[in-house]
Design goal:
By secondary structure, this protein is mainly alpha-helical. It has helices at about 15-25, 30-40, 50-60, 80, 95-115, 120-125, 125-140, and strands at about 65-70, 75.
């Protein structure tokens, strides 16, 4: 298999996938921890959105690059631990399916926050209820 055929190489999400891969080489992390680490590494210049991180983690799981543990942390699979890859990509959802995947990522992020930052999570509940109502209306 050539380097470009390796499943941990992606033509999506530009440098985010290799950055997540690099961080997971250091140990298992939740999506929220990955976002925090990237923000810290960039000295606050960049914090990837949950809509970028969680769909990417789902994609990497489907590709067999990462696995999600019972504690919600993602870690590299054995084959992915042995290799390293980089690839270009794109940003933002372009289809309904991609938007739904991004929403799933945001929900996974909120689930992480509910467990790890309960007080902060409570402050967002009124807005989340309003959003849930809007989603229910468009899903009819």
């Amino acid at each position: 298999m050539s380097l470009l055929e390796a499943p941990w190489i992606s033509r999506h999400r530009r440098g985010l996938r290799p950055l997540v891969y690099h961080l997971l080489c250091q140990g298992a992390k939740t999506g929220a921890e990955l976002m925090d680490d990237i923000e810290r590494m960039s000295r606050g210049f960049w914090r990837p959105s949950p809509g970028s991180i969680y769909p990417l983690l789902e994609e990497m799981t489907r590709d067999g690059v990462v696995k999600r543990g019972a504690d919600g942390r993602y870690s590299l699979t054995a084959p992915a631990s042995a290799e390293r890859g980089w690839g270009p990509g794109r940003f933002g959802p372009r289809t309904v399916e991609e938007a739904v995947v991004e929403l799933r990522g945001l929900l996974a992020y909120l689930e992480d926050l509910k467990r790890s930052r309960a007080e902060e999570f409570q402050h967002g509940l009124p807005a989340m209820k309003e959003i849930a109502s809007r989603l229910a209306r468009i899903a009819e």
